[in-house]
Amino acid sequence: MYLRKDMNKIKKLLVANRGEIALRIMRSAREMGIKTVAVFSEADRNALHVRFADEAICIGPPASSESYLVINKIINAARLVNADAIHPGYGFLSENEDFADSVRKAGLIFIGPSPESIKLMGSKLAAKAAAKKFNVPLVPGTTEPIADISNAKKIASDIGYPILIKASAGGGGKGMRIVNNESEFEEQMERAISEAKSAFGDGSVFIEKYVTQPRHIEFQIFGDQHGNVIHLFERECSIQRRHQKVIEEAPSSILTPALREKMGNAAVNVAKAANYYNAGTVEFIVDDKMNFYFLEMNTRLQVEHPVTEEITGLDLVKLQIEIAEGQKLPFKQEDLSIRGHAIEVRVYAEDPTNNFLPDIGTLKTYKRPQGHGIRVDDGFEQGMTVPFYYDPMIAKMICHDETRDRAILKTIRAIDEYEITGLETTLGFCKFVMNHNAFRSGDFDTNFVEKYFKPEFLVDETMNVEEMIASVLATQVVAEMKPLMIKSENIPSAVSNWKKNRLNE
């Protein structure tokens, strides 16, 4: 385990990221009296995190492969300004063991786990093998990469269809294929390997039993460099599209205190299996019979970490920095408790009525919701353009209240108050989820979108009074003109073009 010898306090921190997470890290650092340094691509020259930082350095063209993903440029920037430490945020290089190792070799503090832990948990197969030593429950499947297709077919048959083919180095739903029967096996295997090679440069895949009604529940863990590890309870992350999260909440509505303790202990054991320190997340699948299985470990701060902050009262970034300085965890497991309920909705520049495709553009109107228990983490302001080079997330809105029902109602109110025009967002979809009986009752799984959502639900819900009047008038015009029309194809649509244009602004 690596521990800096001088144990000095961090005085200047370079944030190797952009957008809302860069701002979020810088704000906590500033409250600790730490100077901050932003790095930015040419596309982010006027970004909020660049303006907020004490110093800022351009590291290249807009493409992340020429800027935010170039290790040497970031290390050189840190040396140029005499930074003490680097925080990777999430995404980009946050789970790259070579980057963590380069930071360490440069004599800088990496705000995160050791390169060895990142490497171990970066391989799903290696992570499962490590977890197995601590008797952490695993989904039935292979423990080695698939080398022989015919043998893999036999294993799949023994496990029982449906099965899941997954990239060992994967994430974000890439290199993942569901196989419902043996006739599909070879084709889906070839596709998964090809996608894994393209996305990660590694075509290794494995198979496991596909849980048909899964809940995605993860535990936030923290370890220090003195061997202490605790968990900060769970987050429910089952509302997803394309295997990627859109809504998260803490705590989960389905865990009993006994199951929470059991899963929390398993999460801590996974961290111990990796000799882990700093922030990490252990992800589990929970089936309809409340059996849970280890899925993977993310060796970084998560996008959804604010819901954990809201129910614990802790600042996870400050805790990360303190642990990186060599300090011990300031509390024990028994000192922690859950306070109320928190919900996070991710505000993406995506069109839910068009298969959640990115809808990049300029924020003509951008007004955040306000009020007690409402938090917005973002990196944009009115008039700015959401660049197409990066992830299309505009903001994260987090609502906290005493109970889950109250948190849901507060989230609905905040969504209604959030004003964004100029591009489509996921806000309408998130409101649809908040109002749905399956979500309200807690009886849902990762298939929520496939089971309950249709694009036309949002078109109907987003029609305001003016639009409804226009639609009615258009219908009347059609009725009055019908006798005068010879060809039916000349009849105008009952939904006005004005409404369509409004919806597509």
Gross CATH architecture of the largest domain: 2-Layer Sandwich
Q: Helix segment count?
A: 18
Radius of gyration: 24 Å
CATH topology of the largest domain: D-amino Acid Aminotransferase, Chain A, domain 1
Mean pLDDT: 89
Range of helix content:
25-40%
CATH top level of the largest domain? Alpha Beta
Could you explain how this protein is built, in words?
The protein has 505 residues and is an alpha+beta fold. It has five domains: 100 residues, Rossmann fold (3-Layer(aba) Sandwich); 154 residues, ATP-grasp fold, B domain (D-amino Acid Aminotransferase, Chain A, domain 1, 2-Layer Sandwich); 70 residues, Dna Ligase, domain 1; 100 residues, ATP-grasp fold, B domain (D-amino Acid Aminotransferase, Chain A, domain 1); 39 residues, no CATH class. Helix 4 links the parallel strand 4 and strand 5. The N terminus and C terminus are likely disordered.
Please specify the SSE layout and strand pairing.
Blueprint: E1 12-15, H1 19-31, E2 35-41, H2 48-52, E3 55-60, H3 71-80, E4 85-87, H4 97-105, E5 109-110, H5 115-122, H6 124-132, H7 149-159, E6 163-167, E7 176-179, H8 185-200, E8 205-209, E9 215-223, E10 229-241, E11 244-250, H9 257-273, E12 278-286, E13 292-298, H10 305-312, H11 316-324, E14 341-348, E15 350-351, E16 357-358, E17 365-367, E18 374-378, E19 393-401, H12 404-417, E20 419-421, H13 427-435, H14 437-441, H15 448-452, H16 455-461, H17 465-481, H18 497-503
